[in-house]
């Protein structure tokens, strides 16, 4: 989680629907920001999803996704508060010209969303104290996708923040033909199952730590949201508290997903 000198070492073993994930981690005992948990959470999410991809390939399917195939980069991407803070940190570390260029692109994206009449809804979603269900948000997803607006971080059909891309982007893969992805709303799209949605786990973690509602923040608004919530961004917790609460969210999500699959849901 961090380069802090005082750490506790833990062995993690998670039972995912497609297998077991085990790893070792050093957790700082000092006070750290919530973004310190992101490398661990991203790593766990990718290991769990790798098991799903292996299972898919073992059943004779081929994953169609590859670099340069960026049809999914026109979809509405939700981010958790910790991810939004981390993205704002990344942009702040850039040289001024590159920082200004990306902030301009984000501003233009928000202007396009405003002209399309969906910016107000997206802003309300980011600040909602009662996050809507997947079914309730589906019309907004479709309205956003209808714009076919490229992600502000897409450069030459490749992700310019690949190492720091949102968890939702890491989890999306399909086995349907790549040509079908020209319409990601099509019934022909066959997504690879996702056993652990890290953005959801991080949203629940943030809510637990702060005593607020879970947040799912649309990607084009994430940096603006993080700046508006700067005071929250400066809060610190012990590394062990963040770690224990994060693992609890992961374990609960995996348990529910495993039970759902076993019941045929």
UniProtKB/TrEMBL annotation:
Cross-referenced InterPro entries: Puta_zinc/iron-chelating_dom
Pfam families assigned to the protein according to its UniProt record, in alphabetical order: CxxCxxCC (PF03692)
Protein name: Zinc/iron-chelating domain-containing protein
Lineage, broadest ranks: Bacteria, Pseudomonadati, Nitrospirota, Nitrospiria, Nitrospirales
């Amino acid at each position: 989680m961090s380069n802090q000198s005082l750490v506790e070492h833990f062995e993690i073993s998670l039972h995912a629907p497609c297998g077991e994930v085990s790893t070792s981690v050093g957790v700082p005992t000092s006070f750290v920001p919530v973004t310190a948990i992101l490398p661990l959470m991203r790593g766990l999410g990718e290991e769990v999803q790798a098991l799903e991809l292996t299972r898919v390939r073992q059943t004779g399917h081929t994953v169609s996704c590859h670099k340069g195939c960026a049809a999914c980069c026109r979809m509405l991407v939700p981010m958790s508060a910790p991810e939004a803070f981390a993205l704002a940190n990344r942009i702040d570390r850039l040289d001024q010209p590159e920082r200004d260029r990306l902030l301009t692109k984000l501003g233009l994206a928000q202007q396009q969303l405003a002209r399309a009449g969906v910016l107000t809804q997206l802003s309300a979603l980011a600040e909602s104290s009662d996050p809507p269900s997947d079914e309730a948000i589906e019309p907004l997803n479709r309205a956003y996708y209808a714009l076919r607006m490229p992600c502000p971080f897409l450069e030459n059909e490749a992700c310019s923040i690949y190492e720091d891309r949102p968890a939702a982007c890491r989890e999306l893969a399909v086995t349907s033909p790549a040509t079908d992805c020209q319409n990601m709303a099509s019934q022909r799209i066959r997504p690879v199952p996702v056993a652990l949605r890290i953005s959801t786990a991080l949203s629940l973690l943030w809510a637990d730590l702060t005593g607020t509602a879970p947040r799912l923040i649309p990607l084009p608004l994430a940096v603006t949201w993080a700046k508006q919530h700067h005071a929250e961004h400066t809060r610190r917790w012990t590394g062990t508290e963040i770690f224990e609460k994060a693992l609890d969210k992961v374990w609960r999500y995996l348990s529910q997903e495993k039970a759902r699959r076993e019941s045929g849901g």
